[in-house]
Write a structure and sequence with these properties.
The complex is a heterodimer of chains A (about 140) and B (about 150). By secondary structure, chain A is an all-alpha fold. In chain A, about 80% of the residues lie in helices and about 0% in strands. The longest helix of chain A is centred in the C-terminal third of the chain and has 28 residues. Chain A is globular. The N and C termini of chain A lie far apart (about 40 Å). With about 150 residues, chain B is an all-alpha fold. Chain B contains seven helices and no strands. In chain B, helix 2 runs antiparallel to helix 5 and helix 2 runs antiparallel to helix 6. Chain B starts with 6 loop residues before the first helix and ends in an 8-residue tail after the last helix. Classes of the chains: A mainly alpha (about 140), B mainly alpha (about 150). At the A-B interface, helix 3 and helix 4 of A face helix 2, helix 3, helix 4, helix 5 and helix 6 of B.
Chain lengths: ~140, ~150
């Protein structure tokens, strides 16, 4: 990639990451579903590196955002502990598997996961706006 | 010898700053997970502790706001403080300390990565960015960055 194009892609990626961070902080929707596409599709980062980097980026961003909630008692340990332990164990397993599988396989799984995530997010938005309950989703 | 015959030669070097960040996060997260497990064990072993997790959980499932969740639990709702240090002998306090440690470990990881970027890799711009990220997290940790939570 020519240097000037790389610079432009980096700047666009930086702006998009601002939006991703805002979405994560405002809606509590993490941002992993957006970080990987921005890295892979906009900043042309290889898919495995994008997937691995998204975990790092989210940890850095969320670590600053979570302290106000901890200090005012909005994070309840009894509720968060099972989630945290599952995520730590799952994260270690996922990282080891990521190093061994093909990038195409990861791409197909990511497509399915992003599609399902977007369905869920859209249904949640529709449910909130219209005050209805969509079954299954 | 071609790259296909000698793949080791074509593999890029792993950035030492990435290793510094990753190792710090890895072991810090392992330690926080162990402490969190100990906290949960303590919760089960001490059902009559100062903080009642069963009341906390039942209030959450009733849909209460944060104030309502902490009412009648056994201690006052935390007021922008690291409350788990004072309650570290309780299961809930120790569990929260473990979770907080897992969140906190990002700060030394960023600083370690910045140090390596400055001293070993000669990339001061990325080191400055790492330090800025660490300072933002520290500001949130000490309470400079606050958030109104009802």
């Amino acid at each position: 990639v020519p240097r000037s194009l790389a610079t432009v892609l980096r700047d666009i990626g930086g702006i998009l990451f601002l939006l991703v961070g805002f979405t994560g902080g405002f809606f509590g929707l993490g941002g992993g579903w957006a970080v990987v596409p921005v890295l892979n599709l906009v900043m042309t980062t290889p898919l495995k590196i994008s997937a691995a980097s998204s975990g790092v980026l989210l940890a850095m961003g969320n670590s600053a955002a979570i302290w106000p909630y901890i200090k005012v008692g909005a994070l309840i340990a009894a509720l968060a502990a099972p989630w945290m332990l599952g995520q730590v164990i799952g994260g270690i397993l996922g990282a080891h598997i990521l190093a061994r599988v093909r990038a195409n396989f990861i791409r197909y799984i990511l497509i399915v996961l992003l599609f399902l995530t977007s369905l869920k997010l859209m249904s949640r938005g529709v449910e909130t706006l219209l005050g209805i309950d969509i079954p299954v989703l | 010898m071609s790259e296909q015959q000698n793949p080791e030669k074509s593999r890029p070097d792993i950035p030492k700053s990435g290793v510094a960040y990753g190792d710090t996060i890895y072991w810090g997260t392992i330690a926080s997970a162990v402490i969190t497990i100990l906290g949960q064990v303590l919760t089960f072993l001490t059902p009559g502790s100062a903080i009642s997790p069963s009341i906390l959980l039942s209030r959450i499932w009733e849909g209460k706001a944060v104030d309502g969740i902490w009412k009648g639990v056994g201690v006052a709702r935390p007021d922008n403080e690291h409350w788990y240090f004072a309650q570290i002998t309780t299961g809930e306090g120790l569990t929260m300390f473990g979770i907080a440690l897992g969140v906190f470990v990002v700060i030394p990881a960023l600083l370690a990565s910045a140090w390596v970027l400055f001293t070993r890799e000669g990339r001061p711009m990325f080191a400055v960015l790492a330090i800025i990220a660490a300072l933002i997290t520290i500001a949130s940790f000490v309470g400079v960055i606050q958030m109104p939570v009802s």
